[in-house]
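Note to self: user wants both folds in one dump. Writing first protein now.
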Amino acid sequence: MTVEVANAEDVRDYVDPDDIMEAVLAAVRSEKGERYELVNVCSGRAVSLGEFVGIFGKISGKSFLIRETSRDKTRSVGSPEKARRLLGWAPAVPIEESVRKALARTPERRR
């Protein structure tokens, strides 16, 4: 199967939906910081699209061929440090576990 991506070396910061919910709840409960202070809800882990496809393939048991559509490289990675300091929150779910959970929710996996 072929997966089309802009550039396999593009880097993103993936965070699990359960971690996002925990961060929101930590913010609601927090009494630290200024009102409406911005924090990054992120993993802080840089994962290239190629690495992500590899993780997905390994966990799903499928092989993927990556087809790139661009030579431009982009990078978007945050730091969860401020969320740790102000909210006592840190990401807990590794990307591999997030992929496992997502695959377990797909209809073909539930059969």
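First done. Writing the second protein, which came from a different request thread.
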Amino acid sequence: MTVVGVIFVLAMYFLPALIAAQKKHHNASAICLLNLFLGWTCIGWIAALVWSATSPPPTQLPPQYPPYYQHQLPPQYAQQQPPQQQVGPWNQG
């Protein structure tokens, strides 16, 4: 086997680790270790390849809107009391 053949085989063997590194996967080191130690089994290599193809979680969360407090409500709504519960035959006790 020539040097080019050895490089090609190693590149194919570490393809999942290369994909994870290229995508900046958040578990790239774990994928590389899985590929290194279990890649010789076909199942380990396929598992590493599938794992490297998954998309990383979003790096930026959507903005969180603060809840409305009494001091943030308009004055006409700030002092308003909740409606009284109506008494009827269905809720008498």
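Dump finished. Worth passing along: Helices lie at 3-13, 15-22, 28-38, 42-53, 75-78.
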